[in-house]
Amino acid sequence: MxxxxxxxxxxxxxxxxxxxxxxxxxxxxQADEPWDAAGxxxxxxxxxxxLTTGSECVDAAVLAACPELRICANMAVGYNxxxxxxxxxxxxxxxxxPDVLTETTADFGFALLMATARRITESEHFLRSGQWKRWRxxxxxGAEVHGSTxxxxxxxxxxxxxxxxxxxxxxxxxxxxxRSRLDPALESECRARYVGKEELLKTADHLVLVLPYSAxxxxxxxxxxxxxxxxxxxxxxxARGGIVDDxxxxxxxxxGRIAAAGLDVFEGEPRxxxxxxxxxxxxxxxxxxxxxxxxxxxxxxxxxxxxIAFFHGDGPLTPVNSVMGSKV
Length: 328
Ligand code: 8YV
What we know:
Elements: E1 5-8, H1 14-23, E2 25-27, H2 37-44, E3 49-52, H3 60-65, E4 71-74, H4 84-89, E5 93-95, H5 102-117, H6 120-128, E6 149-153, H7 157-170, E7 173-177, H8 184-190, E8 192-194, H9 197-203, E9 206-209, H10 223-228, E10 234-237, H11 246-254, E11 260-263, H12 274-277, E12 282-284, H13 293-311
Parallel strand pairs: 1-2, 1-3, 3-4, 4-5, 6-7, 6-9, 7-8, 9-10, 10-11, 11-12
Helix pairs in contact: 1-13, 5-7
Bound molecules: 2-keto-D-gluconic acid.
């Protein structure tokens, strides 16, 4: 029996490609060539499965052009690159890569919070550029982290990880807002208190965004929300670009309406709003919150295991939609 044909859209760990080759007829992209939408569709012709990263968009046009496609396995927990409704309508299974990146991403959220509040990159640039001539009492004086109020918008697994770090590691007063409130046992384990979004914005010294991107979270932090925040507050986004209105954020940072921001994700990335690039009170990183080798390996493996389980007829491990008759 011939093996199912799959596409691996981006360069990937050689061992993951080798594993996939045991089960599938694989077209890979180990050269990591950038494909536009037409190039992606061209490579998908005749493929029943694809391993995507968050960079490849699977929408109605792709689905219409690739009628043999049965499953898209995303190597990311977020899957806003999938039009899930269109995939379900086309009978295409989607899977994501949750859990394996939770703690690593929460670590990074905290690293970005610390770097932002304590002005780490700004002061390093100062030092490297030879401007450090002598000590001064207020030189790069930042915001206090320990004992301050940590606000978390979006309290899924990563948000809970950030909460635990803040509460247990830094003695922070942790507040959160989420579509739905956590059950009391989980709330008390995270030492986090549920508040309305407005209260969260008004009281947080450090606000960390960890909510999924969707039409309803588009510009969840815009000019009106930024206006509610403390002028001393820091904002950290490890969720998705588009959740923050980057132009409004740059204006707020420039005018000192909030103190600083740490951003790992951007609207329209890899482009970064030029107004953000011009500011010194921002820490900017290129979407690396899950980037440790063990975690990226685990994400790749989970995406591969989803493809293998699906085609073996066991059903996907971490589905994002339910597709009638998805068992092969
Ligand atoms: C990925 C992420 O690295 O998992 C996610 O949702 O944002 C990152 O961990 C990125 O999406 C590439 O797949």
